[in-house]
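Q: What would this complex look like in 3D?
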Amino acid sequence: MTSVIIPRSEHPVSRKHIHPDALKVMYRLARKGFTAYLVGGSVRDLILGRTPKDFDVSTNATPSQIKKIFQNCFLIGRRFRLAHIRFDDHIIETATFRRCPVQEEETDDGELYMLRDNCYGTPEEDALRRDFTINGLFYEIERFTIIDHVGGLSDIRNRLIRSIGDPNIRFREDPVRMIRAIRFAARLDFHIEPVTYNAILRHHEEIMKASSPRIFEELQKLFAFGCGEKAFRLLYKTGLLHDMLPEVAEFLDHDHGQDSVLWDWLAHLDERIRDTGKAEPVLLFAALLFAPVRRVADRYAAQGERVVFAELLADLLTPLCTRICMPKWMSARLIQIMVNQTRFEPDKRKRFSKRGFVAQDCFPETLALYELGLRVAGDDLSHTTAWKDLRREVESERPVSDGFRSEHPRPPRKRPSRRRRR
Ligand code: ATP
Ligand code: MG
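A: Here is my prediction, written as structure tokens for the whole assembly.
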């Protein structure tokens, strides 16, 4: 691939749209004699006219040289040191150019991991070690050009997700890239080009070699920007869903596949995320898992077996949540909001305090899941207003200091780690 420099007159990226702190970092590095580029997702998003989530910088200055230049710089990471340059409310991540791990790291049994990801490199090598061409562009602040070592600009124009290098190698090096390909395709409404797509079909099972916490994080990111439905359709189509969440994939297999009711759940969830601008993590998994667990409960009921819904949920979901490394506070909350669904039409024989119910910490997510269910069923939502009013009433009566939390559940604080003895 020949490298191309695109002059300012031929691309749409303007300094106006770059965060002033990112510009500050690049200009200061340049004044000290270093090369510094804006890199990664921010360049891609600026070309597409979108607002970048964050601005990353790559430079030929080493982490210790960066630290000397910026007082507000903190070095993080053991294997590959990164500089975090901290500003009031955000960080500009500044990394030294690095290159791909060397090829001979293929093990005897054909495994190909990124064992060593910590070698500094040239700008071109830094572009080549990135995942997709659309993420491999550099923007420089001397002449405001875009430097394209990987053919990223034409792929952006053609709306294509293409692996940098052979995807059969790149996906084995880091299988999480397969989920990333799907995330970018869904979020940007791009196509995954055929060679890259076929490599996902061929290597999807390797995803299980990635660490569970990383997969869990990636799964959550798929819902950001309200593109969950498209992303999960692709996960299902490529086989990745069968590897990561077989329970959900099997439900889809038995529920008309691409015409399943689950897609309605995800479509309504996407709509909610786009409307509210937030993707509540517990609600994401609740929307994904409620129809599959409901199906199991209905099957027991059809066989005439009496099962306690709460116990069934715990039996089905606890092993799943543990396997995908969902934090305990979150899985407990997930089960609770699903159990709570039965309480909107309470059993008249049981004593039931509506006020106690709406006072629950997880009531907002409980109601959100209930509303999603009503939308999926095409039912009327007007009676949910009474529940919302009651919640407001109960909330206003509670003193602020009693720990009653409404909209923003927080994970419990971690216990401080014990100091090691020398
Ligand atoms: P987002 O807008 O979601 O943050 P992004 O492209 O900025 O998208 P990040 O996860 O923030 O994605 O990563 C920043 C950049 O680092 C990417 O654009 C890509 O160039 C590179 N990168 C991230 N993860 C990988 C990976 N697993 N393999 C290779 N390169 C990666
Ligand atoms: Mg980013």
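A: To summarize the key features: Residues 403-408 have pLDDT under 50 and may be disordered. The domain at 1-155 is CATH 3.30.460.10 (Beta Polymerase; domain 2).
Q: Very helpful, thank you.
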